[in-house]
Write a sequence for this structure.
């Protein structure tokens, strides 16, 4: 049956361009394809957008949303486009809104220990600018060299230092947001405490662009700790033993900044990638750790724990160059696994610390049961594990066995009191698990909140909640 649209695409684009005065509207095929389809797309999950808009002001955002309301178009907020869960791919006839041009560091206030930034500021750029004043920005997702504060806020990004300093949510004091109906609201404050009204700031952080578009963020900054830091490397007979050592370190009062664990498969991949020979040590797990300020007492306590859990080949590094080498090794993990070739899926579960040994043992069980090699690494200090499964490149479709492995991993994480998304968000890949994790009542409440703020369901539809 034919459709009878009220407006042509040309008429919609003409109206849109009238609303966007400080930015730029792109409608060419090459630009639309580049921003509509990520490496995570499938035929069912992504479609060519109608326009890609680089906004240059909050008024541009309001103009895009006015256009979306008038013509009933989906709006897809997009930043560095590095989502691992199909969080920013195009929808049919959608408007993709990039805030990358809003990239000013508005203020770094040393007295208040805050920074005010636009969403297009790159995470590492903010950190480096803060360090020039003796401060630092703590959240450090693995993508910090390319990911932007807006995307970090949208996904509540974590990282390696989360074990001590928390996720993005723990480091944001306030945001300014354009709501779907065009209202400009300020949530939160510049203060470290505030108890007035409902905590809408933290509701929007991690909402994945489904409730509005953030155009300004006020974050906490930390003073750079005085004293010498220490990083280290240690090997264990297997991942469950490494996990137990990690729990002991967390309970010890050492307050580590980083506790990163890699299994034997990941060590082997790193050996191939970096031409090292760590696997020859016969270890089944590697721990990379860091303490901000080390003393003789803290170093002795750490070494006692490592000895108790029979750690071998322990390396301690206080020199900056050696610390950077260890840090780079952790950063290389995913590149090393991907360099092995083939298709892959990397997952993101988080479990209570006491259940970390159980979770990693279960992963090994599934590996034996299905015959697929699973590479396990993660921010183990906060119970966050990232199992990665590879399969042959010639198999275009995800093998049913891989699907079953992921399903079993998700259900095991939930069974032991964990979550199926620690820091990578929900996107479209995990939306169908909302009821499984949240239950009927909370699932309904989530949809009621979405409907209240975005009654036309134009903001990033099908993401976060489905």
């Amino acid at each position: 049956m034919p459709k009878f649209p009220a407006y042509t695409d040309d008429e919609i684009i003409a109206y849109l361009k009238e609303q966007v005065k400080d930015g730029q509207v792109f409608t060419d095929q090459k630009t639309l394809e580049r921003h509509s389809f990520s490496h995570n797309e499938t035929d069912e999950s992504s479609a060519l957008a109608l326009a890609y808009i680089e906004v240059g002001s909050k008024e541009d955002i309001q103009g895009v949303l006015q256009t979306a309301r008038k013509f009933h178009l989906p709006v897809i907020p997009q930043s560095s486009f590095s989502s691992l869960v199909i969080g920013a791919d195009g929808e049919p006839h959608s408007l993709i809104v990039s805030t990358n041009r809003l990239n000013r560091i508005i203020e770094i206030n040393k007295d208040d220990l805050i920074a005010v930034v636009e969403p297009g500021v790159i995470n590492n750029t903010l950190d480096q600018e803060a360090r020039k004043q003796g401060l630092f920005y703590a959240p450090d997702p693995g993508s910090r060299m390319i990911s932007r504060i807006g995307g970090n806020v949208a996904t509540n990004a974590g990282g390696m230092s989360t074990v001590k300093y928390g996720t993005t949510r723990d480091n944001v004091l306030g945001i300014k947001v354009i709501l779907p109906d065009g209202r400009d609201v300020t949530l939160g404050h510049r203060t470290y405490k505030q108890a007035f009204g409902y905590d809408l700031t933290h509701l929007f952080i991690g909402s994945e662009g489904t409730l509005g578009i953030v155009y300004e963020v006020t974050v906490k900054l930390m003073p750079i700790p005085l004293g010498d830091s220490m990083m280290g490397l240690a090997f264990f007979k297997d991942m469950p033993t490494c996990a137990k050592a990690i729990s002991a370190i967390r309970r010890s009062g050492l307050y580590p900044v980083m506790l990163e664990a890699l299994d034997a498969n990941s060590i082997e991949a790193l050996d191939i990638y970096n031409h090292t020979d760590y696997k020859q040590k016969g270890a089944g797990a590697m721990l990379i750790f860091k303490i901000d300020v080390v003393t003789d007492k803290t170093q002795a306590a750490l070494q006692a724990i490592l000895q108790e859990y029979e750690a071998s080949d322990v390396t301690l590094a206080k020199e900056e160059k050696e610390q950077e080498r260890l840090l780079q090794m952790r950063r290389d993990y995913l590149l090393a696994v991907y360099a092995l070739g083939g298709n892959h899926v990397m997952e993101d579960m988080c479990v209570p610390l006491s259940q970390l040994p159980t979770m990693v043992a279960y992963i090994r069980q599934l590996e034996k049961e299905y015959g697929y090699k699973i590479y396990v690494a993660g921010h183990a200090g906060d119970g966050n594990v990232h199992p990665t499964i590879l399969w042959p490149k010639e198999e275009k479709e995800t093998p049913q066995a891989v699907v079953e492995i992921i399903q079993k991993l998700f259900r095991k994480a939930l069974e032991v009191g964990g979550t199926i998304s620690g820091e990578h968000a929900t996107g479209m890949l995990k939306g169908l698990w909302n009821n499984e994790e949240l239950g009927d009542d909370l699932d309904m409440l989530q949809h009621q909140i979405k409907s209240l703020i975005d009654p036309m369901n134009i903001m990033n539809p099908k993401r976060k909640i489905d």
The first strand starts at residue 24 and ends at 26. The longest helix spans residues 320-338. The radius of gyration is 23 Å.
